[in-house]
Amino acid sequence: MTTDVAATPARPQAPARTAVKRRYLMCRPTYFDVVYTINPWMHPEVPVDHALVTSQWENLRATYLGLGHDVEVIEGAPGLPDMVFAANGATVVDGKALAVSFHYEQRRAEAQLYADWLRADGIAVTDAVAINEGEGDFLTVGRRMIAGTGFRSDLASHAELAEVTGLEVVTVELVDPRFYHIDTALAVLDDDNVAYLPQAFSPASQARLQELYPGAIHVSLEDAKVFGLNAVSDGHNVVVASQASDFIAALEAAGYHPVPVDLSELLKGGGGIKCCTLELRPAPTTS
Ligand code: ARG
User: Fold this and answer.
1) pTM of the prediction?
2) Looking at this predicted complex, what is its ipTM?
3) Is residue 6 domain-resident?
4) Is residue 97 included in any domain, yes or no?
């Protein structure tokens, strides 16, 4: 018997992925709670385990630090139980920020606290006119922004985003109330690649995403429901909900390094890893 080595099917070669150091802002979950319902995940009658929230949040922070990223911390505020979801605090691109203006009254006071923190950090902040919920709906993919609308951020905010960032802004429409922010339905993996749940978007938006990202990873409803798409990537390491097993396998096959983290107690508020993380993108270095 002979073995024909050449006949063995070649293992498809996943591209090499490169990590880029990031700077994140996280909000300490001191006052996190579920006391009202503004998304389908929130059930105030289900108690929150505060010790578990704290340890899961600390573990996320330690994970970023362990990957070599910088993590800044803003303190939470009493009466603002959703402030832990820092992604909703602003959109920061090239060292400039567009502030937020929340859809629901319950969260409106957070906007000023985030804007103040960013200004104190030296970031130029432009006030929001139309309703926008920051990186919850505005995702940066290289030099393009993908902006969601349908449940929270108003369409008019997309023009403000384009003006502040000077980047191309592609509008997509969300259609499933469980995936009310785009960061629950689409994960940015690097400057050219994303992963998403197709049916969370209108047919026209699905077609647009397919055209822009033909190589994207399509994620199952099952993995999206555990907030698998609410992930944070540095271009190589993808911090992802540990429950999203098929997505984790798909990331590995595509050459990324999944870093599973359990943030299940925060899902009681309708948030996950990305929701707890605001990326502070610096001004481009002139060299
Ligand atoms: N309870 C919060 C809300 O409904 C959760 C926000 C989650 N944040 C996010 N970036 N998806 O506003």
Assistant:
1) 0.94
2) 0.97
3) no
4) yes
